Amino acid sequence: MSAKKANLLYNPTFRSFVFQLIAVITLFFFVYTIVNNALTNLEQRGIATGLGFLSQEAGFGIGLTLIDYDETYSYGRTFFVGLLNTALVSVLGIIFATIVGFIIGIARLSSNWLVSRCAAVYIEVFRNIPLLLQIFFWYFAVLQALPSPRNSMSLGESIFLNVRGLYFAKPIFEPGAGWIAIGLMCAIALSIAYAIYAKRQQRLSGKQYPILWVSLSLLISLPTIAFFLTGQPLHFEAPVLKGFNFRGGISIIPELAALLLALSIYTASFIAEIVRSGINAVSLGQSEAALSLGLSPRKTLRLVVIPQALRIIIPPLTSQYLNLTKNSSLAMAIGYPDLVSVFAGTTLNQTGQAIEIIAMTMAVYLALSLFTSLLMNIYNKKVALVER
Questions:
Q1: Helix (H, G, I), strand (E, B), or coil: what is residue 247?
Q2: Which of 172, 176, 199, 306 has its CA 20 to 30 A from that of 297?
Q3: CB 186 within 8 A of CB 253
Q4: Do the beta carbons of residue 155 and residue 146 sit within 8 Å?
Q5: The 160-162 sheet, strands edge to edge
Q6: 300, 287 in Cβ contact below 8 A?
Q7: CA-to-CA distance for 134 and 385, rounded, in angstroms?
Q8: Nearest to 324 by CA among 126, 80, 64, 92
Q9: Residues paired with 153 in a beta bridge
Q10: Please, what are the domains in the chain?
Q11: Does the CA dihedral 281-284-288-291 come out positive or negative?
């Protein structure tokens, strides 16, 4: 063996490349063998493969749809209906769990004994009960105990609560309503611009500007002005009891409410502990310094403690968001029409395209998790401590 070849074999970079190449080739061969055997078995049994089934008529209804859908639409449409329903409960669950989790986490550190103990009881109870049992509790023990539509609980002239869901008025937009949306977008843009200006002025002069109240004023006033200037191009369609159920308006089905409550409350108990540990990790001297400068305890927590705690909170918080998204697949247990129930359930049973449907379902959850991680990593870099 020549000296050049011997040196190449003892080169750690070359050897690392060779071993990784062998591992990749082995992995691809393993996957190819499994897929090829599966397709061969399906072909021998006369089971069709491919994505052609997506254009076939579905023939079944779905209780909750965010886009137009009926029995005549294709299986491809059911995929998007289930995807949007999964995204809906995941996004709402993340928002509610974050709000509740931060409140409970901060309450856990309260100097008030009763508040602190109540927060501790909340955390220990809800995080130690299996999520599926909590979903069953909210659905069967709470929501299914509500009265029938004819005996609905009225929460106003156009809000009704019964065993079939929560019904409230639906906004109907008329010609000219687009100006209201334009006013809202302008208000959002002005609020962002003002927040950037206020932060810059605070860094230069130390003076604080009321960002929240100015932003709320813009978000309320500009769309309201556009609403009246365009002749009030908006009216509401109230739900009306016809027969055995309500017609018209907007309805929130009990399956969505039960799943959302269980996911939010369960995940919030873990987020609360993450928030508590993150706040405890901030040096006590930071709070003492802020209080000595005349800041109130509330401002100290909001302006000094929490911004520093976020650097510790964000990474484990991301994991809880991912868990919530994946736990939403338990919706099948109570019949909420998410991706698993509609596509990996009914569609799979009717078509028998197990490999394609399961692969598409797995790809969706992978994409949702990666997208959530991407957003959280971007925010984590924004709040991270920049060294000079």
A1: strand
A2: 199
A3: no
A4: no
A5: 153-154, 160-162, 165-168, 250-252
A6: yes
A7: 39
A8: 92
A9: 161
A10: 75-169+238-383 (1.10.3720.10)
A11: positive
Burial (CB count <10 Å: 0-12, 13-18, 19+), residue 262: buried
pLDDT over 60 (residue 386): no
Q: What whole-number distance in Å separates Cα of residue 166 and Cα of residue 150?
A: 13
> Who's near 43: CB < 8 A, 6+ residues apart?
49
The string of DSSP letters for 100-159 reads HHHHHHHHHT-SSHHHHHHHHHHHHHHTSS-HHHHHHIIIIIIGGGSPPGGGPEESSSS-
> Whole-prediction pTM value?
0.84
Query: Average pLDDT for residues 165-184, to the nearest whole number?
Result: 85
Does 387 score more than 60 pLDDT?
no
Write down how long the chain is.
388
- Class of residue 4 by CB neighbours under 10 A (exposed 0-12, middle 13-18, buried 19+): exposed
pLDDT at 3: 57
Average the pLDDT over 365-379 and give the result. 93
Which whole-number Å values give the CA distances from 321 to 1, 279, 376, in the listed order? 56, 19, 9
Three-class SS of 109-124: CCCCHHHHHHHHHHHH
Provide the pLDDT confidence category of residue 200 given band limits of 50, 70 and 90. confident
